[in-house]
Amino acid sequence: MLTQRLGSETQKDPAFLAELIAAIQAHPGSCDEVWLATDYGFPSMETHRASAEALGKIAEKFRAIGVRVSLQLSNSLGHGQYMSARDCSGLVYEGSPAENMVGHRGERADYCFCWRGAHVREYVRQELSLYAAAVQPDTVWIDDDLRATNHFPVEYGCFCETCLAQFCARYGVEISREALVRAINRGEAVWRARWVEFVREGLRDFTDEMARAIHAVSPDSAIGLQGCAHGAYTGYGYDFLYSAMREATGKPPKSRPGGGAYNDHNPLAFLEKAVLLNWQNEMLPAYVREIRPEIENLPDVPYGKSIPGTILETTLYLACGANAMSYAMLMNDYEPMAWHAQMLAGFARHRPYWQALAAANEGTAQAGLIAVTAREGWKRPLAEGEADFAWSREAYADALPLMHAAIPVAMRRERQAQGAVYLLSAANAAALGAEEIEFLLARSVLCDGGALEALARRGYRFGARAVPVDVSQLYERYLPHPVNGAAAGRTWSQTLFVQKGHRLEDLDGTTEPFALYGTDSKNRRAETADPAAPYGIANAFVTTQAGAKWAVFGHNLWQSVISSEKRRQILAAAEALQPGALAAILDTPWQAWVLPREDANGRVSSVSVVNLSPGASESLSLRVRRPKG
Q: What is the pTM of this model?
């Protein structure tokens, strides 16, 4: 369940290893597995051979105390220019035939390499064969440099001569790098589709070769990807990499999602990372069953991430659906082993709860309002003024403010869920594919005015339209409506920092307002001809062209600093669309995350509540619907 990742230096230090083994034995249950690592950099094959032999002997020391041993491939394509601080003499030297990665502007990465390069592929195959044969690892984890972006100075790769030639041959075209970049970003859709397909094929082939090299010398080893959300430059998800691993080995691949949060100076960073992990998990194919996020304490020192912070982070990610955990906390020896041993002792104490939580969550999914993320957003045309490749950005965290207000939010790969209510932001509405939009038009949705505006601009019909408006002098007045309850007649105003919103205008008589705009300003003129609503409708239920009902919030849905009345309005709107849509409701006004999990039958197996306020919470009242028992 719990894995410690060792650094290239610490794993070869006899004194460090002896102390670590003693600490693990002193705290049973604190460590089930260690990851040894290939040399960081691209040294000569002779250097790799010596390191592999050494790691094989080190592996036996851990196995002797009942600790599994896995292996991390520290570099496949290279992490960036900072690799220059390491031994890269195996690929970087005068006259080297290694194929460097080239970016869309023609920039060359001296320490990162093209996944189609024959010389680089052979180097990595030999390296993996040496280490896998010597260590016979439980799993070989490929580090997160197996990606097409972020190889400084290259932003988007690879546009080397090899890639250009193979692309032209693949599609029967003749095109320069400059013209290809223009076509991918501003040309006909076929160019971008071809490029995404081409990049995916190249990365998949490289992954297949790596997996087969491992399997040939260590057939019992599984393969895992130390992934991260690198954007949609390669389209939606990473099925193309995981399928290569599974087909080459016959074993289910594994996932180690990551995303930073190197210290706990700002504990809310854990929550932002949790959303990123949820996004990565949402994209996983169903056959990836081991989800082992990485907690990164870099460097692992008392003034970086604390022991309680590390334990909280572990619990949070398990509550979000992980079933194992890995730690980058033994990568350096800046602190004595006594410090690390305190951390291990904390793990041992909390392990029974972690095991119970992981067991309760097995086979479950997040429950809550389902945040919609555009799966075909990479196909969208760029707007005027947008930078090249802006289409690769993914708006996966738009619903984070609602989560901070104790509103459960889920990401679901399989979106068809009985009684579901979906959350849609303007950014995702602009990027959705036609099939995704048709699906939502027949479902219950909470959205902002910008989402309605974006879809109307694309030709979809609704019973109301959304008009951009400056809300800095406006408040919303709650109408007598069931979603407002006893708050009817009261008002809510956003902070002065929120200035943009939308006014809703009824088009066909079906719009059902539950809040109107008002103002105390003497300088604001009426903006509609309706004397009962001179500043327009703030929030309303709106019908879609498919006859479904959406709750549209023109007055800025995506805010975490809201009143308890405003929060109840949002929850009540969701329940009005689909009674029982929320699996768990925190009734006490308190800053918290609410994380319910439900099985395939909609029964709630666990609910975790994360206190976001300093100190202990007061007694909280939590309603749980459909408990599994």
A: 0.95
